[in-house]
């Protein structure tokens, strides 16, 4: 009886070993940490991104990476380690192009984009934080950080603590541009604590957004400061623009604008400081209705607050 038990146990162990050998080995990087840089397992960021699986973390060490990185893997973290992790993309390609959800790109210096954005993305619940994007060149009107989503649905992304500069070249036009098609919306995006300088166009430009939070940003030396826009027949609604500092602006510091048949409504402009602008501190176009403009400080420009919409609440400015 004892011998039979030992024999059966031995057969079970052998069977389990054979089963384990027969099982496919999961691809490299699944849920693990991948490292990129001199002396690391990967030489390029793209190689590591291609090898990573959902839940993977990619740590990128100081070096110059002459590449454009495309990320299509869900739930991925791409994090620079140190202050000298520089991405220089090829001509007409962005530094990072994210087409997925729950992706983080943090801590990179992205420099020298030629007729392309520093970061482009479509997707939801992504985080772009603490990146320094600068050094644009070329005759094209590009954007430092751009969500180009004609179908809408790029929701609940966070853009935080980035430094975006257009002063090192002549190609940067907008700092942050979140756009959607005429009959679509991007919802719940957060744009906070970014520093944006030297944009010929607009510091922060949101088209067809709802429940967007724009707060604590410092925008300086741009054509326009912050713009909320509803395209033709669309809406821009229930957005909060609060506690931003906007200065040295060539036209309007903060603008709400509606295209034909569009409405910009129920937005809150609260506690912003706007000074040294050429046209209007705060401007609302026709179609900008039922908005609240509260506790803002506007100084040293042509017109303080210019209103063309209806039923707006303007108090304590």
Residue stretches low in confidence (pLDDT < 50, at least 5 long) are 1-29
Q: Which term fits the overall shape? A: elongated
Radius of gyration: 24 Å
Main beta-sheet annotation: 12 strands, parallel
Strand order of the largest sheet: 1-2-5-8-11-14-18-22-26-30-34-37
Counted beta strands: 37
Helix content: under 10%
What is the residue-averaged pLDDT? 89
Class derived from helix and strand content: mainly beta
Tally of DSSP helical segments? 2
Strand content: over 45%
Report how far the terminal alpha carbons are from each other.
92 Å
List strands and helices in order, with pairings.
Blueprint: H1 2-22, E1 33-36, H2 45-51, E2 57-60, E3 63-65, E4 69-71, E5 76-80, E6 85-87, E7 96-99, E8 103-106, E9 109-111, E10 119-122, E11 127-129, E12 132-134, E13 142-149, E14 158-160, E15 163-165, E16 172-180, E17 186-187, E18 190-192, E19 195-197, E20 202-207, E21 209-210, E22 213-215, E23 218-222, E24 224-230, E25 235-237, E26 240-242, E27 245-249, E28 254-258, E29 263-265, E30 268-270, E31 273-277, E32 280-284, E33 288-289, E34 292-294, E35 297-299, E36 303-307, E37 313-315
Would you give an account of this structure?
- There is one protein chain.
- The chain is mostly beta strands and 317 residues long.
- The protein has helices at 2-22, 45-51; strands at residues 33-36, 57-60, 63-65, 69-71, 76-80, 85-87, 96-99, 103-106, 109-111, 119-122, 127-129, 132-134, 142-149, 158-160, 163-165, 172-180, 186-187, 190-192, 195-197, 202-207, 209-210, 213-215, 218-222, 224-230, 235-237, 240-242, 245-249, 254-258, 263-265, 268-270, 273-277, 280-284, 288-289, 292-294, 297-299, 303-307, 313-315.
- The strands form 5 sheets. Strands 1-2-5-8-11-14-18-22-26-30-34-37 form a 12-stranded parallel beta sheet, covered by helices on one side.
- The longest helix is centred in the first third of the chain and has 21 residues, at 2-22.
- The chain is elongated.
- The chain starts with a helix and ends with a strand.
- The model is unreliable at 1-29 (pLDDT under 50).
